[in-house]
Amino acid sequence: MLLILILPLAATVICIWAPQRMCGLVTMVTGVACLGLAVTVAATAADHDVAYLSFLRADALSAVFLLATGFLYAAVAVYSVGYLAHGGISPGYARYSRRFWTGLNIFAWAMLAAPLLSSLALLWVAIEVTTVVSALLVAIEDTDGAAEAAWKYVLIASVGLGLALLATIFAYYAGAQVLGQHYDLAFSPLLHVAGRLPHTPVQLAFVLAVLGYGTKMGLFPVHTWLPDAHSEAPTPVSALLSGALLATCFYAILRYYQVAATALGPRFPRDVLLVFGVASLLLAALYLFGQRDIKRMLAYSSVEHMGILAIGVSFGAPIALAGVLLHVLAHAAAKGNAFMGAGVLVHKFGTKRLAAMRGGLDVLPWSGPLFLLAILALGAMPPFGLFRSEFEIVEGGFASASTVTAAILIIGVTVAFFGLAATVNQILLVPRTPPVRPPAVPAPALARVGGADGAAQQGPKAAARLAAVPRGEPSAWMVVPVLAGALVLLVLGVHPPAGLTHLLARAVSELSGVR
């Protein structure tokens, strides 16, 4: 656990001074090492809780989120080598590269630290660090859109984390009534005496935690920063934001859920999560239709999946909770793959506009099919991990007699799938339009017809540009981590390892209050 905290910090320091090539190598080695260390911690936490010094603690629940972040850190570190080498980054490349590697490592460090910290106060600090660092990474492209997205992110996330700080204060107040004024917000003692805590401050703490951390998790109605930030951030950062940061904030909510369910009974916290989950799922499913930006489309998919997680916890059945935790891991792999695939498409076609992308399967012999597999996985198609996890969540809904909610979940997921499928069909399966003769229409009128997004309607120039896109992958570095992610999705869907199944079972018992 201590090495997981030390290595990314050491990599950060090295990247401040080292040459760009060394920064990439150091980050790759650090990411893979942290993934190996996370697996080691998870293997131990599957049998018993692990504590070190006075501020580090890992149980089965925290180990699940540690694995998700560790995997994405390793995958994104490898992908970023190809992204920076072939991404067409302009004039201040050396400065950009140094800032990118430094920010990426410190961002990963904060997300790895969050599930390992034993105190609710330290957990809040770690998530606050992710806000500062990720906002700088969102703005790193130095465009007007990136600056606007970063400011919007900072403002909304700061309000949310202000509410989360209030939740932390109310949790301290509730704990101090039983544990005394010397209580330091450590989670284990608070959970141990949760049955004796005063109800009102616990209720306030939980609602504020859902609103506060839910802001960064992307729950409706505090999700509005998410599409802009995911769209404007560099692709590796978008993958971490969606696959790891949102899950880390969900982890914080689960810690408050454990306390609230023990102190108040499960009905109140489940009802709160149900409202936010259903609203997030339905909103995102509808917004997936008609998107013009490929990364914004994937951002709304993230809102959809966060809603699924909240609904799954609201069911409360052990099978649903197991599905939720499996969903965290599978979503990290699938959304990481989707964003990395989108990054290759953006590089290849020179735009994020969906209407300007055609014939992706033909242009990208590896990344095209892998992106298609990632979208199918996000749509919960078998045999991938998200099919298994969503099936378990729905089964838990029926088991807990939440038939209507389970039906809403099925409908929402189906609508979202059609939204994703319609778009991906256009960019991957529709062939590139060959050059055509110019229509006898004046140039201004032609521009009006084509609009900003109609590549196929913008006349011969757009068609010729599509036809001229060369076939081939930008870099092998941008393919290898996506292959690894596809393998993970397949394993999670077909036959999860016995050790992982044991870890999930123990985490479910912790969430259910059975130790």
3D structure, described in words:
75% of the residues lie in helices and 1% in strands. The protein is mainly alpha-helical and 515 residues long. A two-stranded antiparallel sheet has the order 1-2. α1 runs antiparallel to α4, α5 (120-138) packs antiparallel against α6 and α10 runs parallel beside α12. It is globular. The model is unreliable at 435-458 (pLDDT under 50).
Q: Could you tell me the mean pLDDT? A: 89
Total number of strands: 2
Strand content: under 5%
Order of strands across the biggest sheet? 1-2
Give the overall shape, derived from the CA principal axes: globular
Low-pLDDT segments: 435-458
Spatial extent as radius of gyration: 23 Å
Instruction: Provide the structure class.
Output: mainly alpha
List key phrases describing it:
about 525 residues; mainly alpha; 21 helices; globular
Question: What does the secondary structure layout of this molecule look like, with pairings?
Answer:
Layout: H1 2-17, H2 20-45, E1 50-52, E2 56-58, H3 60-86, H4 93-113, H5 120-138, H6 144-179, H7 187-192, H8 199-217, H9 225-232, H10 235-264, H11 267-287, H12 294-315, H13 318-349, H14 360-363, H15 367-378, H16 385-399, H17 403-429, H18 443-450, H19 460-467, H20 480-494, H21 498-511
Antiparallel strand pairs: 1-2
Compact overview of the structure:
The chain has 515 residues and is mostly helical.
